[in-house]
Design a protein that fits this description.
The chain is mainly alpha-helical. It contains 13 helices and no strands. The chain has two domains: 30 residues; 179 residues, no CATH class.
Length: 213
């Protein structure tokens, strides 16, 4: 009888442990974005999965010669033309070779190099509603969540800033959008100075501010 009770107790304990582990896994998984792989750090992130392009996996890219990877990341033309601008913008933000920006004399030059070889960015900047999509992304960009969850958070931050101060976006801004951006720039500068001055440089944020003015 004692043995049976002991067995039941052990079995119950195992079931409880398994239940706790599964619950933790579910809660952890629930906070992730299917595209970025972490907690969402801007409004609308992960809501355009049906439109956003799914890149080859890191394992698939690793099997491709470095010189051929940029070509492998091109979006098929038919898919590209059918993508919503919101889905396209998110696709660009999640470009797998974003780290290449750091290989050049400046991040802006590196961005230009990526743009020259990636048809997603080329298409984004001819969309007439590009400013309407990028402004809310920048305004809602949460640096705390970005720092915690996104791959290469510093480069992601600069990438979004540089996307915004491209000429097609600047010329499309209306006065309300300019005011929104200036307010968001001020808020982000304060946060960086108080909390992230060793991680997020103000350089491209200040370029964005100058070009808006």
């Amino acid at each position: 009888m004692k043995i049976k009770r002991k067995t039941l107790f052990i079995s119950a304990a195992i079931i409880i442990i398994i239940a706790v582990v599964v619950l933790v896994w579910i809660l952890k998984d629930d906070t992730s974005s299917p595209i970025d792989g972490g907690t969402t750090w801007f409004v609308g992130q992960g809501e355009h999965d049906a439109s956003a392009y799914i890149y080859p996996t890191q394992e698939e890219l690793a099997a491709i010669e470095p010189k051929d990877r940029a070509a492998a990341l091109q979006i098929p033309e038919k898919i590209l033309k059918e993508m919503s601008t919101a889905g396209l913008a998110e696709t660009c933000i999640n470009y797998p070779m974003i780290a290449e920006m750091a290989f050049y004399d400046s991040l802006e030059i590196g961005f230009g190099r990526i743009k020259s070889q990636f048809n997603g960015l080329q298409e984004l900047f001819v969309r007439t509603d590009v400013a309407d999509i990028l402004v809310p992304i920048f305004v809602s960009m949460d640096l705390n969540k970005l720092n915690q969850c996104a791959e290469s958070p510093t480069l992601k931050f600069h990438f979004v800033c540089i996307m915004l101060y491209q000429e097609p976006v600047m010329t499309a801004l209306n006065s309300e959008q300019r005011n929104e951006l200036m307010k968001a720039i001020s808020e982000k500068r304060k946060l960086i100075n108080s909390k992230y001055d060793d991680q997020f440089s103000l350089y491209n944020l200040e370029i964005l501010e100058q070009r808006i003015k």
